[in-house]
Design goal:
Helix content is 36%, strand content 20%. It is α/β, with parallel strands linked by helices and 253 residues long. It has one domain: Rossmann fold, CATH 3.40.50. It has a 7-stranded mixed β-sheet, sandwiched between helices. It starts with 10 loop residues before the first helix and ends with a strand.
Amino acid sequence: MTEVAPSDSLREVYELRGGEDYASPVAPDPTLDRKFAVLTEEIRGLLPVESLLDAGCGDGRYLAALPSLGRVPRRVVGVDIADSILATARLATTVAEVPADLVRGNLERIPLGDGEFDLVVSIQVLEHLLDPAAGVRELARVLRPGGLLLLSTDNRASLITKTLNAPRWLVARIAGKRNFRERFTFPHASFSRKELARLMEDAGLVVERTRTFRFSIVGASPRVRRVLNRIDRRLPDVGIGDILVVVALRPRL
């Protein structure tokens, strides 16, 4: 591994963001938070395992959910770039009684050894890396042979959400107010299914399956969000949801 990874330069902004956006643990309502509902079920389907890494664990919500998903792995580790965010994750896992080892680190240079984990989870992190390919190589490196990676990121082909929000975004752009509420500047990319599969393959992983899900309306009320989520649950996956999920295997030697 190199001494310095590109996204190390982003640590300061994430420390600030952690203090404001992740100051307290959150227990999401699955009827409102479609991402949390889907990805916790994805994790449930990959348990039990002996060791689990949440790479980019954020406020610890997925680690804190582990007791509700099955047998908690004997070894649980969370990595994030900011100490301010890890402080919230530490509180969340303590309250949930999940004995997690929380480590500060950048996914482009994970401070853990080779082949340590049966399951690596990385949720909505890849799109924020300056070097996504390096991040996927690191996720593959810390997986044991036969281990699985569950990764989610932004889907470039999120056509339903883009269509539903196009009028609002057009008006905001004309008024010069598009993204005016953003307080922090950091990378935010998106990927196609082919691009994500190529990143996995280049890192030596074998893609087992992909899916997309969710669509949304900016500023929607909780009632509308629940309706949209119920509709999404019933729709077939045609590749145009907001979130792109991949499950990939590190082959045995």
